[in-house]
Design a protein that fits this description.
CATH architecture of the domain at 94-233 and 284-323: 3-Layer(aba) Sandwich
Subunit structure: Homotetramer.
Number of helices: 13
Radius of gyration: 21 Å
EC number: 3.4.24.78
Pfam family, one: Peptidase_A25
Keywords: Hydrolase, Protease, Zymogen
Protein name: Germination protease
Largest sheet: 9 strands, mixed
């Protein structure tokens, strides 16, 4: 199946449904709405579905809220609690949990700085357990965190850095945060995806590195991502689609022009756009102009959710006090 560029399992499913007019075999979907927040749970259950989706077998939870781009303290708290609840379901009930939180991305590129910004607000405790020689605590988990940077600045594969840390610190789980790409501008900076299948660092900008997953690290890897960019060709393709719909509504049904618009395939349209953009080196990634403020807000929401989900004795009031 031809796919426009997206890292969201939800969008991959939508693309298949648009083309085939049916659900993907081996995919289970559950959806609920909490006020202005839509939660969609997509589970890939077998190899057939894995092949169609191009994503690993596992769970993909998408939290969508169009108002996330606005600065609203109450909304941020609400989404943080929803994120914490969904994350707890994936992590499961674990006593004396040891977790490594990894902030993927580049501090110096705002749309790619989500991971490092989240890590800066995570409540790390591993050093406290070591200092006080404690093995467990009723209210706290053993949390360590790192922002390993990108290969262009370190010269080292991110997976190599994380594998070394995992080998020495022996966490029970790894939680990796990274920027993703969407096929729809409306989902950029308004969507959070959680999955239990790991992640490929740099996937949001089409620069995939070695995967961070259980196969490579030896421990379960939970990925949390937000689409912060959209491929220029994808955005242009969607824009042309809207223009075509407007034209076709005005064109007389059965006319040659109307039939031509209907018969133009998505793959043909996307390939043509990329071909036109190529000479101008214009096949770029696009992000909204207020991305600085949005990334700051999203990093707080995600770090709050992680802190609440991992530490048994911490609630929303505690994390807000810690961050501020």
């Amino acid at each position: 199946m031809f796919q426009l560029k997206t890292d969201l399992a939800l969008e991959t499913r939508e693309l298949y449904q648009e083309e085939k007019q049916q659900e993907i075999p081996g995919v289970a979907v559950d959806q609920e709405t909490v006020k202005d927040v839509t939660i969609t749970r997509v589970e890939i259950m077998n190899e057939e579905a894995q092949k169609i989706m191009g994503k690993a077998i596992g769970q993909y939870i998408t939290i969508e809220c169009k108002a996330l781009r606005r600065t609203d303290a109450n909304l941020k708290d609400e989404v943080s609690q929803i994120l914490a609840k969904e994350l707890k379901k994936i992590v499961g009930e674990r006593r004396n949990l040891k977790a490594l939180v990894v902030g993927l991305g580049n501090w110096n590129v705002t749309p790619d700085a989500l991971g490092p910004k989240v890590v800066s607000k995570v409540f790390v405790t591993r050093h406290l357990f070591q200092f006080y020689k404690k093995e467990s605590d009723e209210g706290l988990a053993q949390i360590s965190a790192i922002s390993p940077g990108v290969m262009g600045t370190t010269g080292v594969e991110t997976s190599e850095i994380i594998m070394g840390i995992v080998e020495r610190t022996k966490p029970d789980i790894v939680i990796a945060i990274d920027a993703l790409a969407s096929r729809k501008m409306e989902r950029v900076n308004t969507t959070i995806q959680i999955s239990n299948t790991g992640i490929n660092p740099g996937s949001g900008i089409g620069n995939k590195r070695k995967a961070l997953n259980q196969e490579n690290l030896g421990v379960p890897v939970i990925a949390i991502g937000v689409p912060t960019v959209v491929d220029a060709a994808t955005l242009t393709s969607d824009t042309i689609h809207l223009v075509m719909e407007a034209f076709s509504r005005q064109a007389q049904k059965g006319s040659q022009f109307y039939n031509m618009l209907k018969e133009l395939q998505e793959e043909e349209k996307y390939s043509l756009i990329k071909e036109v953009l190529e000479p101008y080196n214009a096949n770029v990634m696009v992000t909204p102009k207020d991305v600085d403020d949005v990334i700051a807000n999203l990093s707080q929401i995600i770090s709050n959710g992680i802190n609440i989900a991992l530490h048994p004795g911490i609630d929303l009031k505690d994390v807000n006090r810690y961050i501020h």
